Amino acid sequence: MAISILFGGKSYEHEISIVSAISLGKIMKIEHFIFLDCEHQFYLIPQEKMKSSTFSSGEYKQCKKLTIKGRDFYHSSFLGDKALGVRKLLSVIHGGDGEDGIISSMLEFYSIPFIAPRTKACVVSFDKHLTKLYAKDRGVEVLPFELFEIANPPKSLGKYPSIIKPLRLGSSIGVSVIESENDLAYALDEAFEYDECILVEPFISGVKEYNLAGYRNLEGDFVFSIVEEPKKSDFLNFENKYLDFSRTEQVCKAQISQELENALREAFVKLYKNCFEGAIIRCDFFVIEDRVYLNEINPIPGSMANYLFPDFSKAIEEVMMPSPRMINIDYRYIGKIQRAKGKA
Amino acid sequence: MAISILFGGKSYEHEISIVSAISLGKIMKIEHFIFLDCEHQFYLIPQEKMKSSTFSSGEYKQCKKLTIKGRDFYHSSFLGDKALGVRKLLSVIHGGDGEDGIISSMLEFYSIPFIAPRTKACVVSFDKHLTKLYAKDRGVEVLPFELFEIANPPKSLGKYPSIIKPLRLGSSIGVSVIESENDLAYALDEAFEYDECILVEPFISGVKEYNLAGYRNLEGDFVFSIVEEPKKSDFLNFENKYLDFSRTEQVCKAQISQELENALREAFVKLYKNCFEGAIIRCDFFVIEDRVYLNEINPIPGSMANYLFPDFSKAIEEVMMPSPRMINIDYRYIGKIQRAKGKA
């Protein structure tokens, strides 16, 4: 079944989402490219226009406008609204609008079948503090952390190096590693530009990092990607990560023991099960003295981590689509009250 | 400023939401009543039709249909779509659609000013397990609990009496107190009808219960309702609670010490701050041996707990409306990549 892609969004990661959509268009057949601009207007972008200049120049505004309604996206015609015919939608809206649960809520509301984390899964993975509580509760270790609000920034940090992250952003935006107190003021300014709350963690230089993507398939079984040991120039800044997001080439499997691979998969399952169904996610782990720690959950990873799967189209085909709960309302209680009041 | 009300929703608490809306219409001026039916169609209900039979009979389907789009709700006319002119919207959609974050996400997306918890606050309070993690992390005590999935129901519970609750519902739907192992099978059936996951807590007969509602006002200060000691026939079943939701009469202040009132307020602030802004919520507490425990957060309480406020219209007027984050996208990174590739 052909897949449509939803991308863009009112988000600091808007441009990354465009790169993700372009990258996916290169490796698989996409039925529709649906762009959401920062004014929250949807547009249908023809395949041949799927290049970055279409968006940076504003040229996309000449494309067909779409509205979202029951079961589909629609464009206006002389004969009224015409359904686009979206059969399955993959959302690659990173950050705000996408990973914060807004778009998933809308797709759920309008009963459009979609691949992306559902609202709760978005909220749990978008807020790094909630992610820590969630992971610990599910028996997956995390690094220690401290939270600070913009009204009460830290005057100094106990330990260096440390890493400072805005509470609710991905893609390393606003993230800084600080080596000493001298770097603190600048790093705080940077992080607080993106969020009124920040999270501080110890930065462990040379720590082993492993990324693992996966999903549940139509049978409910877990399907895992290969494990990647991401290349890093100690710490990937936004620009490097940005280029990273346009990856379409398969990477090499990390050279790790079967035991460690199993431990990473086990942690993945603990995090995913009964929460992330319907999504293809990537979990980034640290391994310190043979123990696995969750770094972060990427509920909508850059270019969907396609480069970690031997056959990404198959993944799209077989990811489990949770069905919305059926609710039958019979007005039984209102009926009872009416009868009690003698109003039948 | 006049307020519009959004109610109904595809939810087990659909009927309760109708009762809430009718009750609020009795105590304050409502500009528009906007009903969401179980097919996810919005309708504009005239004031004189705001009675339960309009909904139970299906008569509401003859009312004007509305669609939600940028900044307002719209109805079709010969001259195209006409904006309704919603200035501030109070959502009283309890349970699914409302408290699960779906509607809040949509109102946020379409930039409609609204009073209700934002998406994250919904998710945190709708899922009783997440609520426990969240409250504990914020320094508010909760009762111990166990979780069970439908695939692995408990064969027996360690202690009796216990209380069984579906993980994600309000209004006592599917909740049972079980006195002995004999009651277990029936109670499990009941709870699993509404959710594939349940939560079991010790039931403490005769425990002191106190409810406190509140919000942050335009200045960012906390405004609290009176503290209520809810009447209870040991445990309110759905029908009693249902009648409870139509309350519009002021209740009496609980006879408690200033010290306890302060402790309840302190817990409320810990739970509300930096999460529930924009909403009027009610927190239900237990007090056991002078210690305060959170029972549950009602992010959209029945009839908005209007009966706890001396002047509920004032509350609606002065609740802080969080403004959406402004995001400026300058296509700087895409520009850089284009230049690097020599494509300007």
TrEMBL record, chains A, B:
It catalyses: 2 D-alanine + ATP = D-alanyl-D-alanine + ADP + phosphate + H(+). The gene is ddl. It comes from Helicobacter brantae. GO terms for molecular function: ATP binding; D-alanine-D-alanine ligase activity; metal ion binding. One of its GO terms (biological process) is cell wall organization. InterPro entries: ATP-grasp, ATP_grasp_subdomain_1, D-Ala_lig_Van_CS, D_ala_D_ala, Dala_Dala_lig_C, Dala_Dala_lig_N, PreATP-grasp_dom_sf. Keywords: ATP-binding, Cell shape, Cell wall biogenesis/degradation, Cytoplasm, Ligase, Nucleotide-binding, Peptidoglycan synthesis. Pfam families: Dala_Dala_lig_C, Dala_Dala_lig_N. Its cofactor is Mg(2+); Mn(2+). One of its GO terms (cellular component) is cytoplasm. It is found in: Cytoplasm. This is D-alanine--D-alanine ligase. SUPFAM superfamilies: Glutathione synthetase ATP-binding domain-like (SSF56059), PreATP-grasp domain (SSF52440).
